Amino acid sequence: MTVLLRSAANPGGSTTEQILKTVRADVIERMQGYAADPRPEIARILAHNIRILGLLTEAIELAEANTKILSSSE
Question: Which domain covers residue 27, as residue numbers?
Fold first, then answer.
């Protein structure tokens, strides 16, 4: 049984894209707290998080495409 994702056994669950969008929003919020920090370690973290955000956006687009495919086959 899925814990987070919507399924036959968990009809109240979230879609993949909803979960990924929530994670993306959390990363953006956390990054705002780092923005003024001049430490080089934080600069690396920000660079990593920017890359993560791009990957999350790509994953969201794929999940939305999956949802569209499933919706059209019903």
Answer: 16-72
Q: What is the count of structural domains for the chain? A: 1
How far from 71 is each of 1, 14, 29, CA to CA, in Å?
Answer: 22, 15, 32
The model's pTM is 0.86
Residue 41, SS3? Answer: helix
Q: Is 3 within the bounds of a domain?
A: no
Residue 25, both tokens: 């929003």
CA–CA gap between residue 67 and residue 28 (Å, rounded): 25
What letter does residue 3 receive in the DSSP assignment?
S
Instruction: Give residue 70's pLDDT.
Output: 87
* 3-class SS letters over 13-65: CECHHHHHHHHHHHHHHHHHHHCCCCCHHHHHHHHHHHHHHHHHHHHHHHHHH
Residue 45 token pair: 């973290």
